[in-house]
Amino acid sequence: MRRRAVFLDRDGTINEDPGYLCSPKLLRIYPAARRGLKLLANNNFLLFVVTNQSGLGRGYFTVEELAAVHLKLEAELRRDGITLDEIVYCPHHPDDDCDCRKPSPYLVLELAGRYEVDCHSSFFVGDKLVDILTGYNSGCRSVLLALPEEVEELRRMKDWREPDYIAEDLYQAALWITKTE
Ligand SMILES: [Mg+2]
Ligand SMILES: [Zn+2]
Predict the structure, then answer these.
(1) What is the pLDDT of residue 111?
(2) Ligand 2 centroid to residue 101 C-alpha, Å
(3) Which of the ligands is closest to the CA of residue 88?
(4) What's the pLDDT score for residue 1?
């Protein structure tokens, strides 16, 4: 049987987004994200982080620095009993015109193929329109993390698509996901 997964954006979804997070010292995981990830893990969802890291393509940080951030993220979550199945990222500059930068479904579909994930019963969770679109493009349900006043602003964007659900944080999102067939 194919498995269900939750694909997660990183910055602004799991951890605070300081802009081009380049050091483990700057990593701040939201408490609600820890609780949400724990709930999803307890419900047997595979957990993947899918993130655009154009800071690499822009030369703002190195692959080694990014790896150090991800080691810290995995170690902190493991302390809460949460295992991330894999973290994947697009390293390219937006001008590179690559195949993998969100909202391309490339990274999601690649993971889905390797882990035998059923995208139609899986979810993409993120805090930006690009995340909603990545969910749509890969055949997953899309969950937006945003406060009500932020949603109004997002709805005025020209490529706007309504997500399947809007939650204020990852814990609220996880409560909805675990109740959804
Ligand atoms: Mg984000
Ligand atoms: Zn890319």
Answers:
(1) 98
(2) 4
(3) 2
(4) 77
What pLDDT is recorded for position 98? 98
Closest ligand to residue 54's CA: 2
d(CA 66, ligand 2 centre) in Å:
15
- Taking every pair of C-alpha atoms in the chain, what is the biggest distance, in angstroms? 42
Please tell me the distance between residue 35's alpha carbon and the centre of ligand 1 in angstroms: 18
Active-site residue, 11 included: yes
Ligand 2 midpoint to CA 169 (Å): 27
Cα–Cα separations (whole angstroms), residue 107 to 147, 174, 179 = 27, 22, 26
Q: How far apart are CA 150 and CA 113, in angstroms?
A: 34
Q: Is the previous residue joined to 148 through a cis bond, with omega within 30 degrees of 0?
A: no
How many angstroms from the chain centroid is the CA of residue 101? Answer: 13
- Spans of all domains in the chain: 5-111
Give CATH for domain 5-111.
Answer: 3.40.50.1000
